[in-house]
Amino acid sequence: MGLKSTLGNAFASLLLLSAGGLTLWGLWLLVESLWVGVTEIRILAVMFSFGLAMSTGFTGYFIRKALAGQVMPTSFDRSIAYRGGQGGL
Predict the structure, then answer these.
(1) Does an H or E element contain 87, and which?
(2) N or C: fewer beta carbons within 10 Å in the chain?
(3) DSSP assignment of 15-72, as one string?
(4) At residue 75, does pLDDT exceed 90?
């Protein structure tokens, strides 16, 4: 395994781990809001934590897929369906 894939996998794993931690933090804030009471700061913190968890999770997932070579290339072959004027009735 090369240095690029090793560092990339380590970074992607760190992103996925942080997404899990942010999700747990958001759940903790939800439980605390139900237990103690809802405040504006807690609502914003819950939205922030779940949004950042989704962003870091998707980014980590995409980086791992890209390093494995399982991402669709940008110059993929277009079928006949996308060529206007050919086929039809």
Answers:
(1) none
(2) C
(3) HHHHHHHHHHHHHHHHHHHHHH---HHHHHHHHHHHHHHHHHHHHHHHHHHHHHT-S-
(4) no
